[in-house]
Amino acid sequence: MYTITLLPGDGIGPEVIAGAVHVLQAVQEQHTGVRFVLREAPFGGSACDQTGTPLPEETLQLCLSGDAVLLGAVGGPKWDSLPVHLRPEVGALLPLRKHLEVFANLRPSVIFPALADASTLKREVVEGLDVMVVRELTGGIYFGTKHRETLPDGGVKVVETLEYTTAEIVRVARVAFDLARQRRGKLTSVDKANVLESSRLWREVVSEMAGEYPDVELNHMLVDNCAMQLVRYPKQFDVLLTENMFGDILSDQASQLTGSIGMLPSASLGGKVGLYEPIHGSAPDIAGQDVANPIATILSVAMMLRFSFNLPEAANSVERAVSRVLEEGYRTADIMQPGMRQVGTKEMAELIGVRLKVC
Ligand code: NAD
Ligand code: IPM
Ligand code: MN
């Protein structure tokens, strides 16, 4: 029995989580002996509306006491002008990641064969792509001090700090080295060592660890070059390791190589309870219309089955079911192509649930 805390959140969050729940139920029907206990909790802007805080204490306790957390997305224009501690991103998402101590965020950019022509990049650039971004998730500028003051001239000065310690770099780099070892043996560490002291430490620490991994080929790349290389020749990469903010930006960019940000799942690991979420946000522009792509969240369920529950067969069957539905020509609007059949969020999840029975 596995207890999953569901945090639908805001915008398209509840729609994509409903799709993922549908698939979890189908997994349960397929695998005798596998039982999921699902409990839902308020989180983000909607929680702030209901309870006055974006991360209610009961929600946090529920997350900490379950086996895994599945999160939709938070945020939206409605909450953008709240004081910073009440904003869903800073007041709920970042503290949740910190409390769960999930310092390693895995964001796999894998293109399904059926979508090789759905990307805005040419087929030959993206076909066969399989890049794993390992993003440090609980440190860096996201968690530095913030300060704002009004200057005598009436202007405003802000200060925010960026800290990393050796220990924080070592633990996330180890995750990336270990993954590279199980994959194609290539690790690219991305930094801005030509400017930032934190990046110079990052590079020193990662270089030193390479001695423990003679079977992994390590190279370092500056983040601006990496952004360019990701669209020039993304297949040069196997595992990309980087700090929090660079990883945020590069993973959105990498997602588009697969056809849409609506395709990219994530697993945040390192603590006792894993956190699983699509990499996209609450997409206020399409919320409530049954058009969002639920696949990123469904693939996050597959990552949960693999990493938190050690059910690799079930994880593979979810991924195969997604692949099958795409091969049959079903598409949500974001990956729609001529001659394909457009479906909504709900129908896409239902189709994946049905195909699971034969995958
Ligand atoms: P976004 O990822 O929400 O949307 C960017 C674009 O991608 C939009 O055009 C959107 O319609 C599209 N898109 C996103 N997910 C999609 C899906 N599943 N299917 C189809 N199209 C999809 O980013 P944004 O617009 O910059 O941010 C909106 C809000 O979400 C902000 O408040 C932001 O802070 C928040 N956000 C939250 C998370 C999270 O909760 N993990 C992540 C990113 C952004
Ligand atoms: C993500 C999001 C978050 C981040 C925001 C909403 C705080 O963009 O999960 O990628 O930057 O980590
Ligand atoms: Mn992001």
Give a brief rundown of this model.
By secondary structure, the protein is of the alpha/beta class. Helix content is 41%, strand content 19%. The chain has helices spanning 13-30, 45-51, 57-65, 88-100, 123-126, 166-182, 197-209, 223-232, 244-257, 295-307, 312-327, 345-356; strands at residues 2-9, 36-40, 68-73, 104-110, 130-136, 146-150, 156-160, 186-191, 217-222, 239-242, 267-269, 274-276, 330-331, 341-342.
- Order of SSEs: EHEHHEHEHEEEHEHEHEHEEHHEEH
Helical percent range? 40-55%
By CATH, the superfamily of the largest domain comes out as Isopropylmalate Dehydrogenase
Tally of DSSP helical segments? 12
- Tell me the CATH architecture of the largest domain: 3-Layer(aba) Sandwich
Secondary structure category: alpha/beta
- Mean pLDDT metric: 97
Q: Based on Cα principal axes, name the global outline.
A: globular
**Number of E strands:** 14
Gyration radius, rounded: 20 Å
**Alpha-carbon distance between the two ends:** 22 Å
Distinct small-molecule ligands in the complex? nicotinamide-adenine-dinucleotide, 3-isopropylmalic acid, manganese (II) ion
Which descriptors apply to this entry?
globular; 14 strands; binds nicotinamide-adenine-dinucleotide; two-stranded antiparallel ribbon; 19% strand; alpha/beta; Isopropylmalate Dehydrogenase; 2 domains; 10-stranded mixed sheet; binds manganese (II) ion; binds 3-isopropylmalic acid
Could you walk me through the main structural features you see in this protein, from its secondary elements to its overall organization?
The chain is an alpha/beta fold and 359 residues long. The chain has two domains: 204 residues, Isopropylmalate Dehydrogenase, CATH 3.40.718.10; 128 residues, 3-Layer(aba) Sandwich (Isopropylmalate Dehydrogenase), CATH 3.40.718. Helix content is 41%, strand content 19%. It has twelve helices and 14 strands. It has a ten-stranded mixed beta sheet, sandwiched between helices. Strands 6-7 form a two-stranded antiparallel sheet. A two-stranded parallel ribbon has the order 13-14. Strand 6 and strand 7 form a beta hairpin. The protein starts with a strand and ends with a helix. Bound molecules: nicotinamide-adenine-dinucleotide (NAD), 3-isopropylmalic acid (IPM) and manganese (II) ion. The site of 3-isopropylmalic acid (IPM) has 6 residues, from helix 4. 3-isopropylmalic acid (IPM) binds next to helix 4. This is 3-isopropylmalate dehydrogenase.
